[in-house]
Amino acid sequence: MTTTPTVPEEFHIFDTSLRDGAQQEGLRLSVADKLRIAGYLDELGVTFIEGGWPGANPADTQFFVEAKELELRNSKLVAFGATRKAGATAATDPLTKALVDAGTDYICIVAKSHDEHVTRALRTTLDENLEMVTDTVTYLREQGKHVFVDCEHFFDGYRANPEYALSVVRAASEAGAEVVILCDTNGGMLPSWMGDVVSAAAQTGANLGIHCHNDTGCAVANTLAAVEAGVMHVQGTFNGYGERTGNADLSAVIPNLQIKFGWELLPPANLAEITRVSHAIALVANQPLLGRQPYVGASSFAHKAGLHASAIKVDANLYQHIDPTLVGNDMRMLISDMAGRANIQIKGDQLGFDLSDRELAARVTERVKAKEAEGYSYESSDASFEMLLRDELGLLPQPFQVTSWRVFTEERHGETISEATVKITAKGKQEMVVGEGNGPVNALDHALRKAIAAAYPAVESFELTDYSVRLLDEGHGTDATVRVLINTSYEGSTWTTVGVGTNVIEASWEALFDALVYGIFTHVEPELRPETAA
Amino acid sequence: MTTTPTVPEEFHIFDTSLRDGAQQEGLRLSVADKLRIAGYLDELGVTFIEGGWPGANPADTQFFVEAKELELRNSKLVAFGATRKAGATAATDPLTKALVDAGTDYICIVAKSHDEHVTRALRTTLDENLEMVTDTVTYLREQGKHVFVDCEHFFDGYRANPEYALSVVRAASEAGAEVVILCDTNGGMLPSWMGDVVSAAAQTGANLGIHCHNDTGCAVANTLAAVEAGVMHVQGTFNGYGERTGNADLSAVIPNLQIKFGWELLPPANLAEITRVSHAIALVANQPLLGRQPYVGASSFAHKAGLHASAIKVDANLYQHIDPTLVGNDMRMLISDMAGRANIQIKGDQLGFDLSDRELAARVTERVKAKEAEGYSYESSDASFEMLLRDELGLLPQPFQVTSWRVFTEERHGETISEATVKITAKGKQEMVVGEGNGPVNALDHALRKAIAAAYPAVESFELTDYSVRLLDEGHGTDATVRVLINTSYEGSTWTTVGVGTNVIEASWEALFDALVYGIFTHVEPELRPETAA
């Protein structure tokens, strides 16, 4: 079962996050976003980065202008385009010119390989389509470009008319395309259907690549099946972004090839960056991270069941398919209402508290379960968990006390403003301050930090880096109980606190309050923090 | 490439959403939630519903008590448990008793099949583990139960010690287990590794099942590979819920088997409910819907690129791998800044507006692009798009005017309250009202609807069924621009409106205002709505 193919002499990891990935519903990338993502992909060391379609839209054209300033150390930039118009010549086709002008050494053009798409969508003849492939590839080669050809709808085309689909592969290869990519554009393939088709295409003598979409939930597996059948070039996107169900997820394809097949495609130190790169790309693309994402997800090596937790103490490797550090991820124990004492004890150890006392551990476990029943979640908020633990142990400091707070929002002559008033006591001195903000929580954050800064100036440099609201009982609109998670950063460290309530402002206030208390006793005045007796 | 195995005489779809699915980080199901989900699964018609582990925790025990009242029409309920303790007897083992007392005809027990897990985690001998399997299965059969056996860590166990792993399968089968399930508990398998192992296990003569996790991104494909190798029972969860990366997603496995393999496992009318069921389960489980989810995702048959849109007018089937109605989903055209005029025109048609005038269509397209640049998104808010369109066409009614609004939130003696004041004019009459709420937006919603109800009583029955807030520039904490989406329902129809701003209250107000205006001219006083001149 562990027999795997040997790595080809030449093998390409071709990232199309910036081109095909950007087709995803709700995903929009500015030129600046694309440049940042290209930087991450180069750090990781993918072979090729497809940047977009110069000439098709202004942003993509601009990207290639600004990309000239990028000093890529590991990856090569690719411009995407199409075969020239029917009845024209590549030499005079404006889009082909824009493609050349993009100034990349590598160009990838899409060609139709499904007969019906040629006759009905493109509305030209099968012969003219072949001529368009030959002419465009030949012209681009004459301009000194390396050329890849994406055969669009290849697998559906092969099913409908195998001879014609193969003739497009042959035409591209004979005209000088260095790789001809078989595209499952509609994403309908299954892994066991891949081998025969890829082998048939290989008969043309072309170097083959694969481009899969996830419409059957098999994009990663289809890509591996094509590799096993001999392709030397895999296309995909980070985090599986793409139109409809997305493209093959390179953050799963790469670890599968490198760890499961044992192919060293990236230096191991780079592979260990793949989780960070995947998350950084999600951040720039403004996409939520999927905890369940293979290899790189926050939950992918997280253990919840009390059952497991006790056994994991014996040997973690009995419960994980790879060492998570290979991909820069790590094993996490989750505090949750399914947890037994074992989880709580392991978690306590990690935080430096001795919970070996069974009764104490049981008490903490009970309290966690009660809070989680209310809607709190400590799985993702260690700071709040440590505060709960310290409270239970009588080790929770109170750097300041709140007397009262109020916030209002109104429209004044067409402008919306939020204003908060906060009264607190810190180090024996009372402070009452007012703060403005973009919104009520922002105003409360400003007012509260201003009030506390008199006693603890450092809190002025605390930064609220993430704020998320989650409805806990969907379908109740604004009546729902909400959970607020806040990430606060200070001098390179970040901590997460949680607040719960039916009033989003109240829940936010709770999370803000905990964030400041935790930050103060952890990073500003550690002397405030009583250590565990253990 | 289309050769597929023929459907076995007996084939099981075994859903473990309520047991293994509930292990997912952040997923918590109450007894009531589990009963509702079981109802949906029965409607769809899966063969088996695994409800939980009676005796292991009070909630699961309670589920089986209350489940006796469920009148399942299509599915059979299964209680999950484990082999009896080492050194004990099944007849006297309290957990085995709890399992029998659950009162289901079908029981699934987990058995260790990896030698190291037996000796190091379970800390017993390999022989005693076999004895535990035989004794427990035999005892349960004597109680008149149908028994399934999950072989935990089977694939890792087979790699470590094939003889032992197979001996566990044999012991279970010989003791009377009707199906022995091969579990890829750590999820490290690849599809091409499946065939040999499943074939080896088949040599024991046992009826085989498969249970996959998604740690390599191949859970669905691994499941299909096992089916191709001859298993007659597939386990999975809806939407792929489960520990770490989750389990095989039945909402992809079922359509793959039924549509791609051509096996009629469910009546076609039931298969057409799978999208609804998948979404209903997500709602009860309080999990966000993944737009990219194969077959059932909101984006799975959505087309964005202007390139496609024009060709889709020719024949949609050239651009989709199946007819989306087979799974109760549908093809959508997305309005987006990557859209050409074609999308806008198709969308306009769907809404009953004639945008064949190129200049008009271009003007609307420009306006959509400008708004989307600000952060608006019309992909998911058709109501706001129609209002934009009507505004551009001079066909947007104004059922009421807002003079001013204000909302504040404060803590009064330990209690947090939100209070909103709204002044409006409708049908010539001015109204100024105050409303309270769980939070500022809730208070504004109450005040605004109360004010308008004087002129349009029906709005009292409008229900705000969903409210979601999205940060548009992550990493800016509460300073970020936010997008608010609001779903409003009235007499069975639901519409979505969008609001954008740096102030979440302002953005929410905009979405609330549009929701009421749209609802009034669409559902309450259609005579207010001027029709398109076209």
UniProtKB/TrEMBL annotation, chains A, B:
InterPro entries reported for this sequence: 2-isopropylmalate_synth_dimer, AIPM/Hcit_synth_CS, Aldolase_TIM, Citramal_synthase, LeuA/HCS_post-cat, LeuA_allosteric_dom_sf, PYR_CT
GO BP annotations listed: isoleucine biosynthetic process; L-leucine biosynthetic process
Domain named Pyruvate carboxyltransferase: residues: 11-275
Keywords, comma-separated and alphabetical: Amino-acid biosynthesis, Branched-chain amino acid biosynthesis, Isoleucine biosynthesis, Transferase
Domain of life: Bacteria
Gene Ontology MF terms: (R)-citramalate synthase activity; 2-isopropylmalate synthase activity
Pathway(s) annotated for this protein in UniProt: Amino-acid biosynthesis; L-isoleucine biosynthesis; 2-oxobutanoate from pyruvate: step 1/3
This enzyme's EC code(s): 2.3.3.21
Catalytic activity: pyruvate + acetyl-CoA + H2O = (3R)-citramalate + CoA + H(+)
Stored SMART domains: LeuA_dimer
Pfam families, A to Z: HCS_D2 (PF22617), HMGL-like (PF00682), LeuA_dimer (PF08502)
PANTHER family: (R)-CITRAMALATE SYNTHASE (PTHR43538:SF1), ALPHA-IPM SYNTHASE/HOMOCITRATE SYNTHASE (PTHR43538)
Family named by the database record: Belongs to the alpha-IPM synthase/homocitrate synthase family.
Protein name: Citramalate synthase
Organism in which the protein naturally occurs: Tessaracoccus rhinocerotis
